[in-house]
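Sat 14:20. Reprocessing the chain from the morning session after the first attempt stalled halfway. Input below, unchanged.
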Amino acid sequence: MRGLFWIDIYLEPNLERIMSSDKRGYLEYSWSKDGKLAVRLCSGPCYDVNWQVIQVLDPASNRTWRSSEAGFAKPSWSPEGKLAIVIWPGSDSDYNEHWIELYDPATGRTLKTKKKGYMFAKWSPDGKKLAAMVRCDKGFYVEVLDDKLDVLWNSSIGQITVFKWSNDSKIAVRIERDGKEWLEIYTGSTTWRSEEATEVAFNWSEGGNLAYVTDQELNVVKFGGITSQTIIESVLIAMLGVCLLLVALIRYRLRKGSATDSISGEMPHEQT
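Finished this time. Tokens:
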């Protein structure tokens, strides 16, 4: 390591220094919404995951917290200020020895999962669920845990897994296996699965509906009785409805025009 680096916290308006991290090799930091600071540090070669630790600085209580062991740790803050990190205490080949640590600054308690192949974790927008990518012998899957680290749901296993939270804390997981891709949705109480396709792309709307593309077909999933409809089919139905309305309007105008002609034909024309 070339030198020592650290993070200081200053208080406005006089910029008084109120806290400092350990004097180690500084890597990165992230703020929680309520003003706590998580700093990733290393006490040895910074490229070696075995030397990396997380330190949390809490200016409100003047309290610090450190991860239990050195190892690669990627922090994720919940909206309420809980910190979840994945600990890699060994090399990447020892993935079955990874675990999640959850630190709650409000209580000062630290919870840990059992060891398995955790890769990284991310909180849901409501702060009640934690999604983690897990590596196993057959591939990857996504595990959803509650804020006590109890497992709520597991996705299927695939070679490539991507997940994304919706604004209302539903989770969509894209899974690839045997040349096919599909989506699995966990709403907190129900699981929904799309049809298989050679390629799937997806995104959440702000209202919590899901749009996804399978083999050039755009679909929408509306949750609230979980139903799926194809946008192309919907557009065709809407166009058909408009066409029928136009035909009815034209026929009505033609009938009205014929009636006017027949009335005007019976009237005597003025001769000059």
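The first strand starts at residue 8 and ends at 11.
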